[in-house]
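Bug #77: duplicate submission created two jobs. Keeping one. Sequence:
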Amino acid sequence: MTTRHDWTTTPISTDILRGALDLERTGRGLLPHRLPARARRQIPDGQLAMAESQPSGVRLAFRTRATAVELDVVATKRVYPGAPPRPDGVYELLVDGRPAARASAPDGDTLTVDLASMTSRTRPGPVETLRFTGLPDAEKDVEIWLPHDETTLLVALRTDAPLRSPGPTGRPVWLHHGSSISHGSNATTPTGTWPALAANLGEAELINLGFSGSALLDPFTARAMRDTPADLISVKIGINLVNADLMRLRAFGPAVHGFLDTVREGHPTAPLLVVSPICCPIHETTPGPCAPDYSAMSEGRLRFVAMGDPAESAAGKLTLTVIRDELARIVAERAVTDPHLHYLDGLELYGESDHAELPLPDDLHPDPAAHRRIGERFARLAFGHGGPFTPENR
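Kept job's structure:
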């Protein structure tokens, strides 16, 4: 027997959306963005444009007595010819902070990306309805975390009882920027990315500006961070600069200083944590660029290889080892006049022994178990006793 519901449709707005910096109205629905419009106008490539539209850390949040929720979406399915098929993105529903249900949109727009030529094409697809039923018949806080790696248009939100904004949580807002590892690559759920795990353990409200392939010290990202209200800030720098082979050591130091200077313009005394790269053996002493391993792709596996020559680091090419040393030096130098600036060696989050136990499956990104380990360690080192994000340091 099918249960009938008297649905209430609630307009989706920033009042019930967390973790996004902008909400764009399109002809088909509302598109959450993790960079504001001003920054998006300066994006130089399709990779970052795609990454910032993928709603890692973005969630609908409301208070309601509803026992059933429907969300209409248009999801963007990515296809990489020659690479293994990508799993459908996961929508996670939480009740009073605890996981209660999951759903996926099996169809939607299809974005086909040719990794060799870096060209793409899009085929429009249908609206899908996600249904969550059997929720407790009591007043409760509900969150729907959007897929961390699947662009999602929000079309309509329906509940079988009225909903309202949950209001302020009283938790500190943690603004984080990083690479695909922070974005959540290889995590299987949106609350399973390491920043989401760390935010939950640290009882913080996450704004995740982790952008796959695009933690490149872009000035427009620094300005977006400067202009975003936040209590706690972290910047994880390194891996994309190496695997993109973007700059040399001469440019790296001034670029880091400039990025931090811009963030400090808007947050002069907030705890600011600079995090260096986690262990990634292919780039520890070998510069970029990084490229897909096409021989592995022919076998149905996705792997990456470093294309540089270790000898080139003497001429200023960046490696992860070089970046860690330089970041530690820069933070120590700046901390003389900035007591709220801190440094965390990424090897404390995931080092050589962790790689031996939980190797990077594609030689670049952690698996779900490693995401959990990184998140737990970050929570302990940043939010735990004596860490830079503890109340006494805010």
